[in-house]
């Protein structure tokens, strides 16, 4: 995922959709689920000129438990100027946005092939101990993201209105129904940990929730879903 330069001509404030069209919590839930499924895209406009230290993890097998170790495969400083667009993509992003506790720092995930913000930039105490404040932005400097800062594509408006009205409900195929259960299962999970799981283990957990939908082999479920990016090598079998 790459950060995008702001082009407001292509965007409309999500608050407009909320005020004019979303009338019930169920309609908001439908919109957010569609966003998590990447049916359409949400963006938050960065309020802070930020330097963020990002990392990508790798694994190496070893001969003793837990039989692998994780290490920083790549580390890089990413500069995000104020006014850039940070994608809102994950279940926990939407959950925090709805609760009013989403922070700009939460949105630095999977940027330019990097997986997450380095630990000491997510905690003020650790930042004071380990970071050089002249170069990196302290955690306390990042702003809360409210609905005022969220935008959607003009080209997605029709799909959003269909979602709000429930017009897409009759079109739900097995993949969509499976993804909704997957989203529900993910709600209290660490997304980073899930992305490192074997797909067969994830499928087994989903099978416990709905044996009808998850009682057969996954086939293209993991390939087609856009909710979680599983690490390479985690095959269904």
Separation of the first and last Cα atoms: 27 Å
Category by helix and strand content: alpha+beta
Strand content: 15-25%
> Mean pLDDT, nearest integer?
86
Biggest beta sheet attributes: 4 strands, antiparallel
Tell me the overall shape. Answer: flat
Give the ordered list of helices and strands: EHHEEEEHEHEHHHHH
- What's the Cα radius of gyration? 19 Å
Estimated helix fraction:
25-40%
> Helical region count?
9
Strand order of the largest sheet: 1-7-2-5
Indicate the low-confidence ranges by residue numbers.
233-237
Number of strand elements: 7
In short:
The protein is α+β, with helices and mostly antiparallel strands. The chain contains 9 helices and 7 strands.
What does the model show?
The chain is α+β, with helices and mostly antiparallel strands and 237 residues long. Helix content is 32%, strand content 18%. It has helices at 14-20, 25-36, 91-99, 124-130, 157-165, 174-186, 191-195, 199-209, 221-224, and strands spanning 11-13, 42-45, 50-61, 68-80, 85-88, 116-117, 150-153. The strands form 2 sheets. Strands 1-7-2-5 form a 4-stranded antiparallel sheet. It has a 3-stranded antiparallel sheet with strand order 4-3-6, with no helix packed on it. Strand 3 (50-61) and strand 4 (68-80) form a beta hairpin. Helix 2 (25-36) packs across helix 5 (157-165). The protein is flat and about 50 Å long. The relative contact order is 0.16. Mean pLDDT is 86; it is low at 233-237.
């Amino acid at each position: 995922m790459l950060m995008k330069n702001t082009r407001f001509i292509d965007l409309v404030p999500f608050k407009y959709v909320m005020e004019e069209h979303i009338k019930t919590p169920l309609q908001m839930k439908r919109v957010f689920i569609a966003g998590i499924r990447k049916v359409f895209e949400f963006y938050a406009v960065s309020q802070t000129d930020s330097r963020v230290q990002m990392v990508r993890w790798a694994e190496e097998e070893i001969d003793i438990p837990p039989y692998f170790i994780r290490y920083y495969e790549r580390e890089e400083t990413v500069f995000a100027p104020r006014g850039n667009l940070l994608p809102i993509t994950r279940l926990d992003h939407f959950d925090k946005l709805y609760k009013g506790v989403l922070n700009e720092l939460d949105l630095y995930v999977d940027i330019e092939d990097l997986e997450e913000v380095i630990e000491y930039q997510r905690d003020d105490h650790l930042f004071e101990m380990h970071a050089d404040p002249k170069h990196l932005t302290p955690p306390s400097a990042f702003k809360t993201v409210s609905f005022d800062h969220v935008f959607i594509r003009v080209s997605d408006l029709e799909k959003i209105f269909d979602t709000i009205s429930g017009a897409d409900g009759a079109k739900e195929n097995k993949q969509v129904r499976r993804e909704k259960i997957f989203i529900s299962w993910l709600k209290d999970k660490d997304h980073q940990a899930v992305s490192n799981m074997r797909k067969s283990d994830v499928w087994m957990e989903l099978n416990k929730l709905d044996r009808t939908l998850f009682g057969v082999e996954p086939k293209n479920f993991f390939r087609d879903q856009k909710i979680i990016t599983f690490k390479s090598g985690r095959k269904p079998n």
